[in-house]
Amino acid sequence: MKERSYLISVGIVIYIVMSAVDRFIYHIPNIIYIPLAILGITLILIGFFKDKSQQHNING
Q1: pLDDT, position 1
Q2: Transmembrane ranges (predicted)?
Q3: What SS3 string covers the chain?
Q4: The model's pTM
Q5: How many Å apart are CA 4 and CA 26, to the nearest integer?
Q6: How far is residue 43 CA from its own chain's centroid?
Q7: Taking the C-alpha atoms of 8, 9, 14 and 17 in order, what is their torsion angle to the nearest 10 degrees?
């Protein structure tokens, strides 16, 4: 499995699980929800930009 897809997958899973728990099971306090949401989004962006930079290096 590529590192990019791993980072993006982990970020998406964090965000979806946290949103589902907050919506349907238990209201997560903002002091916990916001840092975890930022972590999930950051992992997705890192995976995306890391892949773009690797493609740029390969193509010259």
Answers
A1: 47
A2: 7-25, 31-49
A3: CCHHHHHHHHHHHHHHHHHHHHHHHCCCCHHHHHHHHHHHHHHHHHHHHHHHHHHHHHHC
A4: 0.72
A5: 31
A6: 4
A7: 140
Amino acid identity of residue 55, one-letter, is: Q
| Long-range contacts of residues 16-20, Cβ cutoff 8 Å, at least 24 apart | none
User: How far apart are alpha carbons 49 and 56 in whole angstroms?
Assistant: 10
Residue with tokens 């193509």: 59
**What residue spans define the domains of the chain?**
3-59
Tokens of 52: 């773009």
State both tokens at 18: 């946290």
Which tokens go with 9? 């997958």
